[in-house]
Amino acid sequence: MHLSVWDEFKQCHTGRMHINVPVPKLVEYATVHGEGILTSTGALATFTGKYTGRSPNDKYIVDTPDVRDEIWWENTKRMSEMAFNKLYQKVLNYLQDKDVFVFKGYAGADKRYSLAVTVINEFARQNMFIQQLLIRPEDSGWPVPDKTDFTVIAAPGCTADPQQDNTNSEAFIVINFQRKVVLIGGTHYAGEIKKSIFTVANYLLPKQNILSMHCSANQGANNDVALFFGLSGTGKTSLSADPERSLIGDDEHGWSDHGIFNIEGGCYAKCINLSRENEPQIWDAIRFGAVWEDVVVDEATRIAD
User: Fold this and answer.
1) Which range marks the domain in which residue 269 is found?
2) 147 and 253, same structural domain?
3) Residue 49 is part of a domain; what is its CATH number?
């Protein structure tokens, strides 16, 4: 019988472990250690390097007996348990003596269906990101979870060797439903973390008779709910941020017999051609505690373009 991934990680990790660190402290750490710079609005500007978006060709599900007959493999890459175990050990060894940042919170704003998620980050800036994107115990009024339904380990500096690790490139996003863990390495793009959790929810929620949806949602004064579907970049976040309506969420939702609930706790918006006139809520959210990814910043004025 395996230990949980979180318990296994705690046993083998010898570095410092910072759990549910407040965002201001994460900002301090990130700036001191060169993970990003503060902009004129107080947001943290970071750069993701080679990968500035998700990498679908580097995403795998581990082919375990419990999911083998339930996954649509035609559009999903398989990874063997042997290859996973090797990559898993590589990630644990890589992080063993490093400082790590841990977020323990929730995915799913309806407590009846929420997942207790533990996210282990190599970088403070990515821990900031996931704290803003998932549901924080202090904001929800729920306790810090004492159990973990799923663990995500994000170690961008740990790269795969395609020949030795049976991967497509140095980047990998691997979901193991049997071990209840996601491994992410070789890519600094933080969006892989949130989308991996949504992939997990896409598998687990329908088993509870809940429709998982890639959409934004808001609510009118008469409790009418609008859902906005579309691919990434087609305007879901913009449409949901209607000042005349209450925001439910901008990207990931569940639809149960009790109504619509947000899987996340924050918003992740594209900033191309962003203006206060057209999208005031998004514009005004880019302040201290927010994370910019891959936005050009004037070195002298720290004003972002």
Assistant:
1) 211-293
2) no
3) 3.40.449.10
SS3 206: helix
**What's phi and psi for 27, nearest 5 deg?**
-60, -45
pLDDT beyond 70 at 1: no
Q: How far apart are CA 251 and CA 229, in angstroms?
A: 9
Return the exposure string of 255-286: e unless at least 16 CB atoms fall within 10 Å of the residue's CB, then b: bbeeebbbbbbbbbbeeeeeeeeebebbbebb
pLDDT tens, residue by residue, 65-113: 999 999 999 989 999 999 999 999 999 999 999 999 999 999 999 999 9
Q: What is residue 232's predicted lDDT score, i.e. its pLDDT?
A: 83
Q: Looking at 160, 179, 208, which one is the last position of a domain? A: 208
* CA neighbours closer than 13 Å in the CB half-sphere of residue 249: 24
Counting Cβ atoms within 10 Å, is residue 94 exposed (0-12), middle (13-18) or buried (19+)? middle
Query: Which of 173, 208, 243 finishes a domain?
Result: 208
pLDDT band per the 50, 70, 90 thresholds, residue 2: confident
pLDDT at 290: 97
Quick: pLDDT tens for 181-208: 999 999 999 999 999 999 999 999 999 9
Let me know whether 192 and 120 are in one domain.
yes
Query: In whole angstroms, what is the distance from residue 191 CA to residue 211 CA?
Result: 22
Q: Are residues 63 and 91 in the same domain?
A: yes
Q: What is the DSSP letter of 243?
A: T
pLDDT for 112 equals 96
Quote the number of domains for the chain. 2
Token pair of 211 as six digits = 């429709």
How far apart CA 135 and CA 249 sit, in angstroms, is 12
- Tell me which amino acid residue 247 is: L
Can you give the pTM of this predicted structure? Answer: 0.96
Residue 301 lies in a domain: no
